[in-house]
Amino acid sequence: MKDASESSNIVSLTQRLDPSSERGGALLNTIRDIAGRRLQILINGMFEHVDDALFDLAEKAENNAAQMHYFDGMREVRKRRPIVERGFLGQISRDLSDFASSYRNNAGSNGSVSAPLGSVELSLVADNELEESLAITSMIGKNETRLTRDLFAVNQRLSVIYGGVKIDDATNPVGPAALSQAFRQAMRELNAEMRVKLIIYKLFDRYVLASLDELYQEINAELVQAGVLPQLRHEISRSGGAPRTAGAATQAAEAAGVGAAEATFLADDEAGASSELIQTLRTLFSARRTPPVSGGTQRLPAGAVQLPSANELIGALSVLQSQAAISQQMPINTGSSSELAGEVQRLKEHLLAQIGSLRGEKPSQVSTIDEDTIDLVGMLFEFILEDRNLPTDMQVLLARLQIPYLKAAILDRKLFAHRQHPARRLLDALADAAKGWSAESDRDHRLHDKIKSIVDRLLQDFDDDMTIFERLCAELQEFQDISRRRAELAEQRVAESTRGREKLEQARRRAAREILSRIEGQHLPPLIHGILSRAWANYLVLTILRQGEESSEFRDALRFANDFIESTKPARTLDERRALRQMLPGIERALRRGLANVAFQESDIDRLLAQLHTYYRHQLGEAVSEAEVQAVEESTTLPIPESIQPIAESEAELSRSEPEPEPAMDTPEMQLVAELKPGTWLEFVTGPETIERAKLSWISPMSGRYLFVNRRGLKVADYAPHELAQALASATARVLESSALFDRALDAIVGRLSQPAPSQAPTE
């Protein structure tokens, strides 16, 4: 039996520690020390492998440009590694410190604590960081699932330390989410290509996140030794890899008077979110089928009729599948919701009739679980035919898969429960590929034919071998990878071309401002004015593009413009003439070099300089015929190529060329535009009967314009933010959903089943 002093050191779920107390603070410091020590070892070990990984990739690179990206990445990692490591470890330490402060600031308000930096929503990413966000999201999800047991125990014990505040995977300051986001923040210091960063994230997953079980086990052991929940059970049974949810189990536990932490534990001790979802759907279906007290058709007791077996259902579906494959007809039409519901019911009737022809008598019903499955698949394909995310042609193709998917769902009840089920992944992949399809972007019918061939093969070849879904999924992925590589090259060229044009326009405006600020108000001879506003302005543009506005070459070019204008002032005294003579060699050298850089021919340069020599001889008082002087002063045709056009003739013209300022718009559409990320698909109405689907490829950091490309990487349109907001408001543009088809369908099905059942008129 334990004495009183010993038992007082044990903290139960009903007790709370103040993180600002001496004991709470000591435990927090211990966790911070453990995390800092272990993560230092892990992050060091990871960076030891980065160099070798990038070198191997460089050796296997498909071209010199890719190879240089990896070599540049190696050099950048070697240089910035200490800063990244310090930033990562420092952020984790700050997260742990800030977490206690968050509790003290929030205690007594709502019993919750703000999420640490690591749990910031991954959808809120900076421009052109979509790939990075997807990689991090994948890492977090995979490791939260893998580490469920140890992570759950850390969550519960931290909850006690932080005063009883509920802590979950997303708000745990040493959870995979917080660590991944801290590393992402530290990686901002690394100026490397995204492909290099993605390699480093994979190594972070492999060498840091994969070893977190040791960190959590040490933290749990330390807290158990300190008496924090020493009896907490670790056995957590979960099915599949589906995300966790505490819905039904938590409610049941709370109804029984169990505390929040215990309720969360019980929720994880259930069969998992997948089973819970299926059970929820079955309950909803059952509620819909409950017959009224009087009237209606009573469902027969299970023993009163010989219900079709699973084998009979599969056999009947195989016959219907063969008929559909031969006739190539749609099992469902594309009418209204009521018509679709009728078609679903008729499929059930066709199925029962086919079973009757196979067994010699037609059954009046199927088992409850089979009926649930039939109706669930039917509602899935109703959703597909109503889903505005899919083009109509693609809806028609995918809807033909209703019979194969019903067969697959009967063969394997886990189809709707597991996100990684091959059949589910295939349908999601088909819908994702179809989302960007349009007749214009698929003139060669490659994508349409690929999707059609997969649909046809499922109809023709799918018997009872579920591996066909894996094979077709891999085949579609390979096709998509090849198409994506082609599209990325075209997309990159479009972005670079757009970026180049914007840089050119920006350089032209800067050069025009510099020249106009010097020549406006000056009475310059046409020769000098023409050289500055045309030839030298173009040289300024070239210098800005090549060397930049902060370069010494650009400063020298501006200095020449000042000297050139200065040289036009009358030289009346001996000193003024001496000063002009000293300037002329430098002016000639600079002018000859600059004109050669902007594609002047040597003969044109010589003729221009000959006119300048005549002009300067006159300025210096040398003997020059009046005709020569007049020809130079009044010449309107300079030996300047026609391709060298003036940048701008006046400040007014320059102002007209400036892009209009973005109008202030505080609308929901403008907010939506601001939240768009590269990779998001939109649908545009481009004509009375034409619709184009395009992906946001690039947001210009200079002009803020949004560039859209089709699935082949070719430009479709570009919009200023306010123009895109107006298109969204007028319904000529629409953002397409980015979530998976199956997820959206299940949400819609649950939502539909949760609504009160409509009163049905008696059928005739």
Outline the structure in words.
With 764 residues, the protein is mainly α. The chain is 63% helix and 3% strand. Strands 4-3-2-1-5 form a five-stranded antiparallel beta sheet, with helices on both faces. Helix 3 (64-106) crosses helix 6 (176-186), helix 5 (148-161) crosses helix 8 and helix 19 (467-519) runs parallel beside helix 21 (552-566). The longest helix is centred in the middle third of the chain and has 53 residues, at 467-519. The termini are far apart.
Which structural traits does this protein have?
single chain, 764 residues, mainly alpha, 5-stranded antiparallel β-sheet
How many individual β-strands? 5
| Terminal CA distance | 76 Å
| Count of helical regions | 28
User: What spatial form do the alpha-carbon principal axes imply?
Assistant: extended
The computed structural class is mainly alpha
Strand order of the largest sheet: 4-3-2-1-5
**How would you characterize the largest beta sheet?**
5 strands, antiparallel
CA radius of gyration is 36 Å
Low-pLDDT stretches are 1-8, 107-128, 234-273, 292-298, 329-338, 760-764
Q: Give the mean pLDDT.
A: 78
Portion in beta strands: under 5%
Helix content: 55-70%
Topology:
Blueprint: H1 4-7, H2 22-59, H3 64-106, H4 130-146, H5 148-161, H6 176-186, H7 194-207, H8 212-225, H9 247-255, H10 260-269, H11 273-289, H12 310-327, H13 337-359, H14 368-386, H15 392-399, H16 402-411, H17 422-435, H18 446-461, H19 467-519, H20 526-547, H21 552-566, H22 574-597, H23 602-619, H24 626-634, H25 651-657, H26 668-675, E1 681-685, E2 691-699, E3 706-709, E4 715-719, H27 721-729, E5 733-735, H28 741-754
Helix pairs in contact: 2-3, 2-7, 2-8, 3-6, 4-6, 4-7, 5-8, 9-10, 11-14, 12-13, 12-16, 13-14, 14-15, 14-16, 14-28, 17-19, 18-19, 19-20, 19-21, 20-21, 20-22, 21-22, 22-23, 23-24, 26-27
